[in-house]
Amino acid sequence: MTLFDRIILLATGLVAIYLLWRFLTRYRRAGKMHDIYYMVSFGVLLVAGLLLIAFTYDALASPWVVIVAVLIPAGLSLGLVAEFCPKYEKAYLVFALLGLIAIAITRFTDSAGLATTVLVIVHSVAGLLVFVLPILAVRQGKAPGGFIWVTVGGVLIGLGGIALAFLKTGRQLLFFSEGLVFTILAPLLLLMALAFAWGFVKQIKPA
User: Fold this and answer.
1) Is pLDDT of 115 > 60?
2) CB-hemisphere CA count at 13 Å for 187?
3) Rounded to whole angstroms, how far apart are CA atoms 109 and 60?
C-alpha cells in the first residue's frame, strides 16, 4: 500500500463521516429506519478504510474483514428497500441476515469454494438492488434525478466486491488481476463514496 492509497482511503473516510452526519440529522428529524441501515453501511466503510490504512491490504486476508465488509452493500440495499419498497423490508432483512450467517459459517470452515459462492450471491443480490432501486425511484418521481448517482456507486461497489471475491479462489474476474485490483481499490472506494454522497445529498431534504 502506497502513501497515495492511504491518502485516498482517508479521503474516503471523510466522505463517509459527512454522509453519517447527514443521515443522522435526517434520522433525528424523521426517525425512519432506512437511515439507520445507511448509517451502518457508511460506518462500516469508515472503519474498513481505517483498518486498511493501519494494516494495509493484508487485512483483507482476515475472514472477519470479509464478513464485516458485506455490511456495506447489505446496509445500502436494506436502506433502499426500506425507503422505497417498505413492504419487502422484513423479507429482505431476513435474507440479508441469513446471508451474513452463511458467509460467516463458510468463512470459518474449509469450504473455500462454497464461501466464495455464498459471498458472490449475497454481493450480487445487494448490488443489483443498489443498482435498480435508485433508477426506479427516479422514474417513479420518488427521488430527484441526481439520485441516480447512487446507482453509479452501486456499480462500483459491485465490481470491486465480486473481483475481490474471485481473487480468493485464485481466479480473476474479467481483466481484474490481483495487481490491478489492489492498484485501483483505494480510488474505486473513493469514487464509490463520492457517487453515493452526490446521489444521497441530492435526495436528502434540508432541515
Assistant:
1) yes
2) 7
3) 17
- Range(s) of the domain holding residue 178: 3-203
How far are the Cα atoms of 49, 90, 132, 139, 199 from residue 136, in angstroms, in the given order? 30, 20, 6, 5, 14
Is the pLDDT assigned to residue 160 strictly greater than 70?
Answer: no
CA angle 157, 153, 80 (to 5 degrees): 95
Q: What are phi and psi of 15, to 5 degrees?
A: -65, -40
Instruction: Work out how many domains the chain is built from and give that number.
Output: 1
Compute the average pLDDT of residues 19-33: 92
Would you call 166 helix, strand, or coil by DSSP? helix
Other CB atoms within 10 A of residue 22 CB: 19
- Tens of pLDDT, residue by residue over 81-102, are 999 999 999 999 999 999 888 8
If pLDDT is split at 50, 70 and 90, which confidence band does 169 have?
low
With beta carbons less than 8 A apart as the criterion, state whether 116 and 175 touch: no
| C-beta separation of 141 from 130 below 8 A | no
Rounded Cα distance, 83 and 11, in Å: 28
CA distance 74 to 48: 15
Question: Which residue in 202, 77, 88 sits closest to 143, CA to CA?
Answer: 202
